Amino acid sequence: MPSEKRKDNSMAKKSKEARIQVILECTEHKTSGMPGTSRYISTKNKKNTPERLELKKFNPILKKMTVHKEIK
Q1: How many domains is the chain built from?
Q2: By CB distance 3.0 to 4.6 Å, which of 43, 50, 68, 71 could disulfide with 57?
């Protein structure tokens, strides 16, 4: 007998509406003049943090922790 599954996605959609995907780019890498870029993709809640996101992430080209800011 096939099991009947209920597809009620109303709760899931409400919780996902505010989250958006953002791109974080290294600020020190731009000024260093070295080729390439250090970028990360993350998500943020648009309602809780309307301003641009700033996080310290590892830059593999500069081999150190740097400030990455949200672009676009």
Answers
A1: 1
A2: 68
